[in-house]
Specification:
By secondary structure, the protein is mostly helical. The chain has 2 domains: 148 residues, no CATH class; 137 residues, Four Helix Bundle (Hemerythrin (Met), subunit A), CATH 1.20.120. The protein has a two-stranded parallel ribbon with strand order 1-2. Helix 1 packs antiparallel against helix 2, helix 1 runs antiparallel to helix 9 and helix 3 packs antiparallel against helix 4.
Length: 310
């Protein structure tokens, strides 16, 4: 479509803004779960009978403050996603990216419905699905920010590398393992079950990430974007392991531990670092597929025989 402006900065700006707003939404959602106040507002889409957007600030006390703030932030992210989908549709020339914006819009609608059903049906399973979809949505929105960035548009030439296939495989493996670990974490946070499996998953992710970083340092030091993603992932992993260990000690081993607010902050930060790890691995894998290509095998020269006419 000739009328579309491929170089418009607005798709990227809206994608970045939506991603930035999604992070505090995840954080407040984590606080709601950590404080166990997900059901303090018993109705939806209203709040104690009020229109959600006109609920009095004076009544937002205790757990109501966190739960209602989560709803308001969710509405803000939903509005931004609508605007992002519209901007992508009218300002982005890549058709696949326009449809990815539509998928993001569908995902945020699904997420809102899941949050409402969690309140109405009082189901832990829906809460777990709600948490997992939130992580996937955050990864999708940040991917849209990457796809619309100058970095992505300027990387038009792929780099041949004999380690390209393994790099992509490690990226996919790390992404899958981290998302699985987030699912296990959501199950544990909402039901209290599966701690042992979650700890085993943490060891597996730890090994995979360090293998990935070691692979990058051997074969791709000439790729600054990929190296930066890999090193960032390792730093986040170390922070995540530390937060997970502190959370375990505080909850199971220390009788007179930190205050409730400190323990809640530690547990919620653990969730947020997990989300950032997922985003980092998704970006690493996308960059690997965008930048790296396996070198083509040299084609053998055809042997021509001289035809002898009789």
């Amino acid at each position: 479509m000739a009328s579309l402006d491929h170089d418009s900065p607005w798709p990227h700006r809206f994608a970045v803004l939506t991603a930035i707003m999604t992070l505090p939404l995840l954080f407040v959602g984590g606080l709601v779960t950590s404080l166990k106040v997900g059901m303090v507002v018993p109705d939806w889409p209203t709040t104690f009978g009020y229109n959600m957007f006109f609920y009095p600030w004076s009544k937002m006390i205790g757990g109501i403050f966190y739960e209602h703030s989560h709803r308001l932030l969710g509405s803000a992210v939903g509005l931004l996603t609508i605007l992002l989908a519209g901007v992508l549709w009218f300002k982005e020339s890549r058709q696949w990216l326009r449809w990815l914006g539509v998928i993001a819009l569908g995902a945020v609608i699904l997420q809102g419905v899941l949050g409402g059903l969690r309140v109405i049906l009082v189901q832990h399973k829906i809460a777990i699905i709600h948490a997992c979809v939130a992580q996937a949505f955050f990864a999708l929105i940040t991917s849209l920010a990457l796809f619309t960035s100058r970095e992505w548009k300027s990387s038009t030439q792929q780099t041949p590398s004999r380690a390209a296939r393994k790099t992509k495989q490690l990226g996919l493996l790390a992404t899958g393992l981290i998302y699985t670990q987030l699912i296990l974490g959501a199950i544990f946070r909402h039901t209290g079950a599966g701690l042992s499996l979650h700890i085993v998953g943490a060891f597996v992710v730890f090994i995979c990430v360090f293998l990935l970083v070691d692979h990058m340092q051997q074969y791709h030091t000439d790729q600054p974007f990929l190296m930066r993603s890999a090193l960032t992932l390792r730093r986040l992993l170390l922070a995540q392991v530390g937060l997970g260990f502190i959370t375990y000690v505080v909850k199971y081993l220390v009788v007179d531990g930190p205050s409730t607010s400190q323990a809640v902050l530690i547990a919620t930060s653990h969730v947020i670092i997990g989300a950032l790890m997922l985003v980092t691995t998704v970006h690493f894998t996308l960059r690997a597929y965008h930048i790296l290509v396996e070198p083509q095998a040299p084609t053998s020269q055809p042997i021509f025989s001289e035809r002898i006419s009789v």
